[in-house]
Amino acid sequence: PSTQIGDISYPEKWIESYKTALKKNIDVELVKKKKPRVVVDCASGAGSVVAPFVLQEIGCDVLTLNAQTGTIGEERNPTPEQIDYLKRTVKVLNADIGIAYDLDADKILCVSDKGELIDGDKLLSILVDLIADKGDRVVVPVTTSRAVDVVAERKGVEVIKTRVGPAAIERTIKKTDALFGGDDSGGIIFP
Q1: Which residues, at least 6 apart from 78, have a Cβ–Cβ distance to it below 8 Å?
Q2: Secondary structure of 93-160 in HEC code, one letter for each residue
């Protein structure tokens, strides 16, 4: 075991830094032009302090659910009841998409405008289609369905397979200079 103690740092303006990094991967002008209606469930967690504001800043019409901080429940991931409520809300409000974060906002689930859950593999395929360009690399675990490969092949994007788990995906993204990585649980990692 190591006897050395690391440093603790408290980055200044971390929310602004995070918002800037998120917006770097989004075609803000296109979003502003379309002005999509988005229902976002922040799980009363970390996403509450960033997600609704970033979505509004890039031009979305946003309705938030569970966006109050300090009322953290026991469930880490969205419950089936929360997902059902999100599905119904998206349909009733004629929203374009619903997004549900987990408690620490490192995973998302999405609901289509028809109120249907978009599984993690399909979400990865959509992201490859929307933001990856010819010559880019994306990282996914070996358990990912072939759907991602099909979209990537069509666009000339290299898919790099790695072990399951966020740590393995993150290491491989850094090692291969990939655009992003993710898994079928809704975990999406941008370097």
Answers
A1: 41, 43, 86, 100, 101, 102, 109
A2: CCCCEEEEECCCCCEEEEEECCCCEECHHHHHHHHHHHHCCCCCEEEEECCCCHHHHHHHHHHCCEEE
| pTM (whole model) above 0.90 | no
pLDDT of residue 191: 83
- Length of the chain as a residue count: 191
Instruction: Find out whether 120 and 188 touch, Cβ atoms under 8 Å.
Output: no
Reported for 166-170, long-range contacts at CB under 8 A and 24+ positions apart, including other chains, are 166/106, 168/141, 169/139, 169/140, 169/141
∠ CA 106-79-186, nearest 5°, is 30
% of the chain exceeding 70 in pLDDT: 96
**99: which 2 tokens?**
């997004």
- What is the mean predicted confidence (pLDDT) over 105-116? 92
Residue 39's Cβ-count burial label (10 Å; 0-12, 13-18, 19+) is buried
Instruction: Compare 59 and 75 and report the one with higher pLDDT.
Output: 59
Is the pLDDT assigned to residue 75 strictly greater than 70?
A: no
**Strand boundaries in 31-107, DSSP class E:** 37-41, 61-65, 97-101
Match 């997600």 to its residue by tokens. 51
Instruction: Determine the pLDDT at residue 84.
Output: 95
